[in-house]
Amino acid sequence: MRVLVTGGAGFLGSHLCDALLSEGHSVVAVDNLITGRTINLDHLSREPRFEFREADICHEFDCGKVDYVFHFACPASPVDYMVHGIATLKVGSAGTFNALEVAKRYGAKFFLASTSECYGDPTVHPQPETYWGNVNPVGPRSVYDEAKRFSEAVTSAYRRYHNVDTRIVRIFNTYGPRMQINDGRVIPNFMKQALTGEDLTVYGDGSQTRSFCYVSDEIAGILKLAWSDEHKPTNIGNPGEFTILECAKRVIEVTGSKSKIRFEPLPQDDPKQRRPDITKAKTLLGWEPKIDLMTGLRLSLDYFRETVQKTAAVTG
Ligand code: UDP
């Protein structure tokens, strides 16, 4: 297959490109590089089945005939999407329309990277796909949450009105190599702080929970969904749930750091709890994650250590 990956220079997008190439497909990656980075794709520069195009998918685009469109373009960390709030809303609306138009034009399948943020600050726990969520439509996170909810609506409409063969994954917190060290997300923040001996900044009292999925598990689940016939939203994430305070302690343990923990104010509308109900992915796709948090942190350690050292060398 010839496959298009929007957001192909991002954390998940670039891992997806690798996985698709290793399955034997040709991949064209498109990215406007506002949060994506070409360094994530440097290792593919001699790969004849891979092509990178720098472009903003908020404008109409055409990369020639493709058989599958994976729409992964979007700032995804709370810090990034709040800095790039308007761009986030645009890529979730105009960008999603344009990506779906490519799929419609070529009769290609379409895969939307959606998010657990669709559930907002959930009142149902763990979150099954049937839960409609609890999102503040005008709060600071709404630029991302509503853009993704809108993306799900447009994707569902193209299926209904234009017969585009669509899939929707709801991705829960994912981590691993190629995350940006400065994107503000909790694992890169804690790793960087632990490796440089700074205090780990726990927001609020640290009792809010998240469930962290290692990137290889996430990509395996995404591909299983992509090759399945399921078109309704499907959660892919790791149900192992940790408070953020526990997470900080695990990072200190894995890095062997002497860093302390410092408490800072909780950002507005920060979800109090999050854990995927993955019954559907298990029964329908035969998928479940294999890598627990401690193992995943150990697998990520070399990457974060090297990135911290490189950043220190650059900033002197
Ligand atoms: N968080 C924290 N310290 C940090 C960064 C994040 O305590 O340095 C918390 C944040 O408030 C949230 C959780 O960690 O409760 C996960 O934050 P992240 O930005 O990784 O993603 P989210 O799940 O909120 O989208």
Termini separation: 45 Å
Major beta-sheet overview: 7 strands, parallel
Please count the helical segments.
Answer: 9
| Topology as a string of helices (H) and strands (E) | EHEEEHHEHEEHEEEHEEHEHH
Helix percent reads: 25-40%
Overall, the morphology is globular
**Coarse structural class:** alpha/beta
Strand content: 15-25%
Total number of β-strand segments? 13
Radius of gyration: 19 Å
What does this structure look like?
The chain is α/β, with parallel strands linked by helices and 316 residues long. Helices cover 40% and strands 17% of the residues. It has helices at 11-22, 78-83, 85-106, 142-162, 186-196, 215-226, 244-255, 279-285, 293-315; strands at 2-6, 26-31, 50-54, 68-71, 109-115, 166-171, 174-175, 200-203, 209-211, 213-214, 234-236, 241-243, 261-264. The strands form four sheets. Strands 3-2-1-4-5-6-11 form a seven-stranded parallel beta sheet, sandwiched between helices. A two-stranded parallel sheet has the order 7-10. Helix 1 links the parallel strand 1 (2-6) and strand 2 (26-31). The mean pLDDT is 97. Uridine-5'-diphosphate (UDP) is lined by residues 77-78, 173, 184-186, 189, 201-203, 208, 210, 244, 267, 270. The site of uridine-5'-diphosphate (UDP) has 15 residues, from helix 5 and strand 8.
